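Could someone model pyridoxal-5'-phosphate with this protein?
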Amino acid sequence: MFILLMNNLINQIEALQQISQQLNPSFKEREKLNQQVREFANNFIENLENYPAYVEGNPDFNKLTINSIKKDLAEILAIYNSEVVSKGIKPASGKHLGYVPGGGIYTAALADFLASVTNEYAGMYYASPGAVAIENETLNWMKSIFGFPKDAVGNLTSGGSIANLIALTAARDKHKIKNEKIPKSVLYLSPQAHHCIHKALRIIGLEDLKISILELDELSKIDTSKLTDKIEEDIANGLNPFMVIATAGTTDTGAIDPLSAIGKIAKENNLWYHIDGAYGGFFMLVESKKQLFKGIELADSLVVDPHKGLFLPYGIGAVLIKDKEAVFHSHHYTADYMQDAISADLQINPSDVSPELTKHFRGLRMWLPLQIHGLKPFIASFEEKILLTEYFRNKLTEIGFKVGPQPDLTISYFWYPSAKIDENTFNKKLVEFIHENGDVFFSTTKINGKFVIRMAILSIRTKKATIDTAIEMIQKCLTQTKEAFSIL
Ligand SMILES: *Cc1c(COP(=O)(O)O)cnc(C)c1O
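Reply:
Sure, complex below.
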């Protein structure tokens, strides 16, 4: 009887194994899959510059349905190409000059592949000492760039938003901002601060904080002349100033706030000093720009975004925080089922510095490109982008456009000074033609109520030829706009 049962059991297991084995392709099957994906990737990259940077339109949702029936990879790749890659903004393209462009270094994709195949557990040192050592090494490298002490902690996050969230949580816990203290506590903030700061405040229960919006100078940087007075006035009114946030490269105009001056005021008034350098931070590696970043080392917490500033593919941000205990207050946790993981504190566990426990091994996608390429081509790329911005602005001026003030980095704006038609109306129409054309992609913004076209140059693939193409396209669209208003 027992033998019969066992035989039955074995037969069932073997039958299931026949099917489940499909999830673990053989060498031959893997080679075929690899070959198809490699070909797709090569085709994509080789033809990238022939595609427009922006295509309007929706995917065919039916083609994307999951119907539980297996399909051939070739068929799936065809759908991926037509419904995903061929629609919307193309972040990998050098002709994406809107928002903060993505780019994406190829060697980081290889790192993602390796990280997924080996599937290292990068949440805790105990589980993968090497993976965690790599993550911590990338953080140590950033600490040394930004003048943070060795004993600062940090984390590789999914992006700048979560990095900011972790920093603000630490500031909250350090200053014990809770309960009845919340509505009395003051955060000093630029109107140009990224909206993820406001989101983070809501998430961490600080929605009812007093937010004191700071005044800006004519270059959209925080005007510090009245900041001390403001703080003193708030204290006199029984309020509790506890944090000031500066931006090193605003999203709108790329402006770097006066980091040193704000740092000094923060120290004098015992405020937590947070700097959001998601877009601009890594430009500090450029010798001629170092001066603008003076004071970044004064921050209690700093955010940079390697998926912007280091040209990596989407999915990696970083936060550095000086006060370890402040971070641990919310994120360090022990549970019975993790008792094996308590090791001598050789290395910080990423899971003690982040809401995440299990996570993608992000460190590899930053570490591997830095190892393969060295630092030099990164710095050359930063310098190249700065010069391309200057080249673009000069070209625009040549063809009759007005440009915004000399930018700190690689974000700037321009508009056409139409004499006969209201300028905002004219430039909105111009952007419609630019988006319809789509060859090169731009976003727009408002500067002091004025509608302007915004350029952001930060893709590894943006070259001089890209700017020349952009100028050609803009000229074409300018003619169309003039025709539309019958002012040719
Ligand atoms: C992009 C950006 C963010 C948000 O980062 P994500 O990586 O998109 O989450 C925050 N602050 C600044 C200044 C940014 O440019």
